[in-house]
Design brief:
Structural class: alpha+beta
Order of helices and strands: EEEHEEHHEHHHHHH
Strand content: 5-15%
Number of domains: 3
Shape: elongated
Helix content: 55-70%
Distance between the termini: 11 Å
Strand order of the largest sheet: 1-2-4-3
Length: 293
């Protein structure tokens, strides 16, 4: 299994002689699998079987599926019957609505015919519905495969984008590490210059203790090391043949926490700038990870 994006589109159609069937599937990111299935009324009884297929194929995402039927050859000999009880119920409902609202409530003949359950199918037509469902089921399977292929293609692109940003983060972390001695030395010189300007006599031992204290307070080695460890884990996670979106989201939160700590401990312009760059890169990765299944 390749890494998949949750954003994709797939459309496929097929001709069954007298009917064209078409599936359209759109998917976007979501924490769970959220299926919205739109079927013609005559196939609504098969909804649970179609959803079972979708659940087998997909793990996460908000998925919108629509099946369209278009009759291209009408059988003039086919009998069409009307469900009289359903029609009477509709007319009674319109009458009750008129009494309650004191407004006219009417349905045209065409609106009545289009109401679910009004037009009944003959036994012969019922058999054709079964054939229609079987063909729709197979076509859905193929359309889902197309969606998955697009998800995997997009997933591969997202992986490359994440790796690229990880490489930049590693360079920034290494740069900050190399400058730590320079930063501490600059702090020491700043304090000594201030004392010299004020012409104060100080206890050398006490001064060294204070300098050590401030150096420790500004020490970010642990944060930088943890960022490096998180980056290594991201590379490992990207190799897995399973859904990784949630794990990546957690790692982005951890990276962002370390970047915030780095920014709070910074006492020089360059380190502050590096922390901001890290936060921007992490946020870019987080947005991409939200689309990964």
């Amino acid at each position: 299994m390749m890494i998949r994006s949750m954003t994709a589109f797939s459309r496929k159609g097929e001709n069954l002689g007298d009917t064209d069937i078409t599936w359209e599937i759109r998917s976007v990111n979501h924490r769970h699998l959220d299926i919205s299935l739109h079927l013609p009324d005559r196939l609504s009884s098969y909804e649970h079987k179609l959803k079972e297929l979708i659940q087998k194929k997909l793990g996460r995402g908000r998925v919108d599926l629509k099946l369209t039927l278009h009759v291209v050859n009408i059988n003039e000999d086919e009998d069409i019957s009307i469900n009289e009880a359903k029609v009477k119920s509709l007319l009674n409902a319109c009458g009750q609505l008129k009494l309650l609202t004191h407004k006219s409530a009417t349905l045209s003949a065409m609106e009545i015919l289009q109401w679910p359950g009004v037009m009944e199918q003959s036994q012969a037509n019922s058999k054709s519905d079964k054939v229609l469902f079987e063909s729709s089921y197979l076509l859905l399977e193929s359309t889902l495969d197309g969606l998955i292929t697009m998800r995997e293609t997009e997933g591969a692109r997202l992986v490359e984008m994440i790796k690229s940003r990880c490489e930049t983060i590693v360079k920034i972390v290494d740069s900050v590490k190399k400058r730590r001695d320079e930063v501490v030395q600059a702090l020491r010189e700043k304090v000594m210059n201030k004392i010299s300007e004020l012409d104060l006599e100080v206890d050398e031992n006490r001064l060294e203790q204070e300098l050590v204290y401030h150096a420790q307070r500004l020490d970010v080695d642990e944060e930088l090391d943890r960022m490096g460890a998180h980056i290594e884990e991201i590379y490992e996670v990207l190799k897995r043949k399973e859904p990784i979106g949630r794990r990546l989201d957690f790692l982005m939160q951890e990276l962002n926490r370390e970047a915030n700590t780095l920014a709070s401990k910074s006492n020089d312009t360059q380190t502050t700038k590096s922390a901001v760059e890290l936060k921007v890169l992490i946020e870019q990765m987080r947005e991409q990870c939200l689309n990964i299944e």
